[in-house]
Design goal:
single chain; 424 residues; mainly beta; nine-stranded antiparallel beta sheet; four-stranded antiparallel beta sheet; 2 helices; 24 strands
Length: 424
Amino acid sequence: MLGRLVLGLCAVLATGAITAAEARHNRYHHHRHHHYGDQLILIAETDVDLALDKYTIDVRQAKGAYKGIRIKNAMGKLFDVQRVQIVYSDGSVWNEDRQIDMYWGERSRPINQTYDSKFIDQIVIEQTPGYGRGRLQIIGIQDRDGRSMDRSGRGTSDRRESLSSGGDLSVRPTVPVATPVKAGQATAGGDVLFGAQYVGFLTDRDVIRVGNEVGKFAKIRLRVLDNDIHINELKVVYANGESDSLAVNADIPKNSRTNWIDLRGDRFIKEIQLVYRSRPSFNGQARIEVFGQYAPGWLGPNGEGRKYNQGWVLLGAQTAGFIGFDKDIIPVGSNEGGFRRIRVTVRDRAITLNEVKIVYSDGEEEIVPVRTRVDAGGTYGPIDLKGTRRQAVDHIEAKYRSRFFDSSAKGKGSAIVEIWGQHY
C-alpha cells in the first residue's frame, strides 16, 4: 500500500514538472509568435537594376537593433529573389534560401525572426536577372528593446532638432548613392530635386535657385551623403520676396534624410539658402540634396499646374541605359486624373523610343507603339489618350535606349527621359 502511495506521489510530481516545463515552453513560443510591441521600420530603400544577379545593401546607419526583416517590392514589375543573406554586426550570417516572388507593392513574410534583437550590417540579395529597374525596401522588425539599443551600447533617443517654426527635423537612413536626376527634375517617387551641393570643412553658404517654371510646392526635405553636416540655417525664399527660416543649429548624419518639412502655404519657390558646415574627416566633403513635394492639386485637372507651361506638367523622369531597350517604369506623382494627352521630352542624348504604355489607377492600360528617334532637347508627341478618360494615371512604362553615337549629346552620360501630361 505504502509503495503504491509513493509511486502515485512520484507520478504527480513528475506530471507537475512536465506541466511547468510545458508552461515555460508555451510562454516562450507565445512571446516569439505574438511579438507584443513589435513595429515594422523602414531601414533602407534602394533603386535596383533588375538585370543584376546579386547586390548588397548597407544598413549600418539603421537606428537600433532588429529581430528580423521583411523585403518589399516598392516599385517594379517583379522581383524574383532566390536568396536573402543577413550579415550581423557580430559576424554571424543568416541565409534565407527560398524563392521570393514579389509584384509591385508585395512584401515577404518575416526573414529570420528571432527572440533577441541584433544589429544588422548588410543585406545581400541574390535574384534571377530580369529587365528594367525597380525599388526594393528593407523593413526591420523591431521591439521596444531594439529601439533602445545602439551600437556603442548606450540607449538611443529620438533625433529631434530645433526648427524656428517648432517643427521636427527627424532623420532616417537612406541609400548612400547620389540621386541620379538633374536639378528641376522629378525622381522616380515623384519628388523634385531642387539641387545638390558639396559641402567643405569650413562654414559654407550656398543658394539653390528653383524658379516658377518647376511648380508650386508645399514641403521640402534634405538628404545628406558621405559625411555628417551641421545646418546653421535653412531659408526658403518665395517668389513674392517673403521667406521662411526653417532650421537653426541642426545636425544631420551622413547617409540620412530628413522628414518632410511643411512650408507656410503652397508657394512658388525662388531659391533655397543654406548655411552649413561638414564635420572634418578622411571621407572628405558631404553632399547635400534638397527636394520638394508638389502642392496638393498641382497635378490635378483643376490644379494650378495647367495654368503654366501651356498646361503641361512634369509627371516623372528616368535615366535611359546604353545597351538594348530599357523598359522603365515611371511612377506618376499624386494626381486626380483628367489627362488628355502626354508627351516625351529627351535631354542630353538622343534615344530610340519604341513604346509608351499608360497604366491607369483602375488597372487599365493603353499602349502606344512609336519606333522613332527623339533627339536631345526634342519632344515626341503629343500623344492623344483615348476617349474622355478621367481616372488618375498610376504609372507609365516606356521602352527606349540611348543612341550611342550622337554628335549632339551633352557630355558622356545617358539620356534623361521626361514624361509630361496635359489636362483637359
